[in-house]
Amino acid sequence: MKDGRIFFVAGVVKRDGKVLLGLNSGKREVWTLPERAVSRDYAQEFERAGDIARQVVLEETGLMSSQLDFLDVREVCYGNRREVVLLYECYVKGEPRAAGGDKTWVWFDPHKIPKNVSLSLRAYRSLEEGLNGGE
Fold it and tell me: Which structural domains are found in the chain, ordered by start?
């Protein structure tokens, strides 16, 4: 039985206390993490999902992850849309480049993340708020 949830794997790329976000410049501008929708099967296998996080960070930003740590699984909702997001912290060196997509990559202070964000970025923000006592 389908429950309507969509599963995503997202790479949280951090460096020098900042997090890397991409601005989708489509019909509605939204800031996002490097992310990919995956099947429920991939989402339930953390090792495979971690490989996807590493791959999507490389494909979207051109950055190679030297290390990957599982952060959390978060369920976020917006209207009738429900996403389950697997968050992985990716350790990288260098600067991002546009990798054939329509995103512009910018480093942000985690406390100054813009308001117009994807559901995966909302999941990361809720994780950070929980770790920092709701700051």
Answer: 5-131 (3.90.79.10)
Q: How far apart are CA 126 and CA 123, in angstroms?
A: 5
Both tokens of 66, joined, read 């030297």
The pTM (predicted TM-score) of the whole model is: 0.84
Taking only the tens place, the pLDDT of each residue in 60-117 is 999 999 899 999 999 888 888 888 899 999 999 889 986 656 788 999 998 899 988 9
Contact, 90 vs 54, CB < 8 A?
yes
Q: Which phi and psi angles does 20 have, rounded to 5°? A: -90, 125
The three-state secondary structure class of 24 is: strand
Amino acid at 5: R
Alpha-carbon span 9 to 51, nearest angstrom: 10
In this structure, what DSSP letter does residue 64 have?
A: P
Helix, strand, coil fractions of the chain, as percent rounded to 5:
25, 45, 30
Q: What angle do CA 119, 46, 71 make, to 5 degrees?
A: 55
